[in-house]
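User: What would this chain look like folded?
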Amino acid sequence: MRMRARNNLESRLEACAGFMTDAAGAAELPGPLHIEIGCGKGRFITETAALHPEISYVAVEKVSNVIVLAMEKAKAAELSNLKFIRGDFAMIAPQLPEGSVDRIYLNFSDPWPKNGYAKRRLTHGAFLEQYKRILKDGGEIHFKTDNRGLFDFSLETFPENGFELKNITFDLHKEMPDGNIMTEYEQRFSEIGTPICRLEATVRK
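Assistant: Here's the prediction, encoded as structure tokens.
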């Protein structure tokens, strides 16, 4: 289903233009660089950026109707360490310099459950190779999902592509570690009792 355009979308995007950047601009941001792929409405990335002003954050989202909401959150919070890139990360990744990223967040990515669509999953080997190129040695991927099938798939693909796994959990909210920041989806799933899976993957070059 096509998402209906939000009222005054173009003028709202223009009002947040100062929060937009591109791959070249992202690579020039000061300090450690953390990227969220598919930021949705922006709850996770804005709250995380507010807590860590010493880190530069970039949120990637290809849906204009959604990214505008995230940028408006960042603008309301006056976050100077958060920028946004509107587009498909598969097209953006090749423009990022090798070893320029310290951490990547993958939060509730589309599971693409049919076997024929496996290559579209953001934890497929083809994507993991892109992440390996842009991550620094020792850089991390933090991955959350409510989809157990995608999580099991990812538990295989990360090691197959040279990542070391740690802090694996099949029920994050049962343990609820300090500092966990929820996305909008995560809040919804937790309220209905859906287990949240999470892992951290470290790249070694």
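The CA atoms of residues 108 and 145 lie 5 Å apart. If you want, I can go into more detail on any region.
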